[in-house]
Design brief:
With 103 residues, the chain is mainly alpha-helical. The protein has one domain.
Length: 103
């Protein structure tokens, strides 16, 4: 995707890919910097724990981590591509269509 600086795996806000039990974080989701990558790593870890029922991770924990990723994006000093927000919205639309076709 142009706004994400290259080809990225299709994934949702919880960083789940189309491959069962495979989650992504960091530059593979688009070039956005270390702070965003760290926030994504935390979210991916929590998403995995929720999926595997490890610990007491619930939907509120996931939503808070998603919000922190978005907050990290807004506070980022560097924007590697001017259209990253639009590309993220496009990616969400692609995920929605994929999820509908595979549910």
């Amino acid at each position: 995707m142009e706004g994400l600086s290259g080809t990225v795996p299709l994934h949702n806000k919880e960083l789940q890919t189309t491959v069962p039990n495979l989650f992504v974080a960091g530059n593979i989701t688009g070039i956005e910097g270390a702070k965003v990558a760290m926030a994504q790593g935390t979210l991916a870890g929590k998403s995995i724990c929720k999926r595997l029922k490890i610990g007491k991770i619930n939907e509120t924990d996931i939503e808070e981590s998603i919000s922190f990723v978005e907050h990290s994006r807004k506070l980022s000093d560097i924007k590697f591509h001017p259209n990253v927000s639009e590309a993220r919205k496009d990616l969400e639309g692609l995920w929605s269509r994929w999820a509908q076709a595979h549910t």
